[in-house]
Design goal:
By secondary structure, the chain is an alpha/beta fold. The protein has helices spanning 11-23, 34-44, 60-69, 87-96, 108-120, and strands spanning 3-7, 27-31, 48-51, 77-82, 100-103. Residues 3-119 form the Response regulatory domain.
């Protein structure tokens, strides 16, 4: 299957997402903050990143912007997974470079389906 990087500072969310995506056959790695996540994207070139918005050291919007600005990783698919739920938040996420957006709380089954959809398209 695909390589997926989860970048989320909440260990429970990261573990839940990791477990679900591994169960459906993806190769999964986890990072706990934006700077570590960006470094992992540069290093491993994952097929998709599941990215939290509010994290220490670098937030998800900044990670998106950096990814889109770097030619070697600019085509990386990014799914923003966040508690931010306002229409303006959705617009900011897409403007920063996110390809998809899911709100917390979420259904693990819906998340896995969304990941598969993004990887197929």
């Amino acid at each position: 299957m695909a390589s997926v990087l989860i970048v989320d500072d909440d260990p429970d969310i990261a573990m839940l997402v990791s477990h679900k995506l591994k169960a459906v056959g993806h190769d999964v790695a986890v990072e706990v903050d934006g700077e570590a996540g960006l470094a992992a994207i540069r290093r491993s070139h994952p097929d998709l990143v599941v990215l939290d918005w509010m994290m220490p050291r670098m937030n998800g919007l900044d990670v998106c912007a950096h990814v889109r600005a770097e030619p070697d990783i600019a085509r990386t698919r990014i799914l923003m997974l966040t508690a931010k739920a306002q229409e303006a938040d959705l617009e900011r996420a897409y403007t920063s470079g996110a390809d998809g957006y899911m709100q917390k709380p979420f259904s693990p089954r819906d998340l896995a389906a969304r990941v598969d959809q993004m990887l197929a398209g």
